[in-house]
Amino acid sequence: MRNKFSRAGIGSVLFAAVMGSVAFAGPAAKDIDITVVYHDTGIEFGQVIKAGALAAGKELGINVEFVGPIGIKVDEEVAFIENAITKKVEGLAISNVNGEALNPVIDKAMAANIPVVTFNSEAPGSKRIAFFGQDLVSSGKAAADSLVKAMGSEGSVLIITGEAAASWSQDREGGARTELAKYPGIKVVNTISTGWEEQAQYAAIENAIRANPDLNGIISLDAATTPATGRALHRVERATKIHHVGFDLIPETLDNVKAGVTDAALSQNPYMQGYLPVKALYDFITTGKAIESIDTGILQVDQTNIDEYLEKLKKGEPIG
């Protein structure tokens, strides 16, 4: 693998692209290696992102590698990025799970003239070029709005997340709290940060539900705690009393929406979060086209459209 930016550097290429230069000559597609680093390749949601990234690589005729730890392990994610830098790949797309750890290595890649974009989870404060993913503050507001429509404007609400300190979690929680604050009759009783080990996560959620017998609503902020919350509501037989809104469209969550355990699930189009970064890096590498951030949007699945998405899942469509 060769770093095609060694002579001019990324800054010069960006300047040429902005100025509309027609003289830019990039490498042939067969010589382009792009590494996509996701923070947990072991979850179903991550496989939808992978499908999008690999589809873009196949379409463009380039080499795309989708890598990352199984389970969220920050040190391992950093190691995957360091390895890509050592290999001098032509482009990097990174999902940031911990800015303190990842921002320096993102900046290291940029300094090595490897263009870096982020996807799914932003890396504020880093030198990345662009971000491909959902407006997380807006998605938090949308989740809160959906919960209020389901439970009404009074009651006690619990917020559940896999990692409260993560930037994506803080953005979504901030958006949710801002929206809920519009209703004086709603009280957010706590934010539960469960961690990512499955059994411990489930136990933390069940314990939190049992500790709040007057609970009216729950917002789960991620693809892991959303189905786990649905499972817990089933177990403690509170599904008919507690309204629940969560994120992402993995099969268990869709089943919970169908069963009425989860009132709504909000999707962020993970397939395109894999596809779009690869396509943007390819265009930049081959033509110097400037990379711009893209919001992958908010899609709500509830009782009004759940059958449509269950059918898509049955057909094998990558809905995530």
How would you describe this protein?
This protein is an alpha/beta fold and 320 residues long. The chain has helices at residues 9-18, 44-60, 74-86, 99-111, 136-151, 167-180, 198-210, 225-235, 251-259, 270-287, 306-314, and strands at 33-37, 63-67, 91-94, 116-119, 131-133, 155-161, 186-193, 215-220, 243-247, 264-267, 294-295, 299-301. It has a six-stranded parallel β-sheet, with helices on both faces. A six-stranded mixed β-sheet has the order 7-6-8-9-10-12, with helices on both faces. Helix 2 (44-60) links the parallel strand 1 and strand 2 (63-67). The protein starts with 8 loop residues before the first helix and ends in a 6-residue tail after the last helix.
Rounded to an integer, what's the Rg over CA atoms?
21 Å
Strand order of the largest sheet: 2-1-3-4-5-11
Shape from CA axes?
A: elongated
User: What structural class do you assign from the helix and strand content?
Assistant: alpha/beta
By DSSP, the count of extended strands is: 12
- End-to-end separation in angstroms reads 32 Å
Give the number of helices.
Answer: 11
Order of helices and strands: HEHEHEHEEHEHEHEHEHEHEEH
What percentage of amino acids are in beta strands?
A: 15-25%
Q: State the share of residues found in helices, binned by percent.
A: 40-55%
In quaternary terms, these chains amount to single chain
Taking pLDDT < 50 over at least 5 consecutive residues as the criterion, the unreliable ranges are: 1-9, 12-23
Mean pLDDT: 90
Largest sheet: 6 strands, parallel
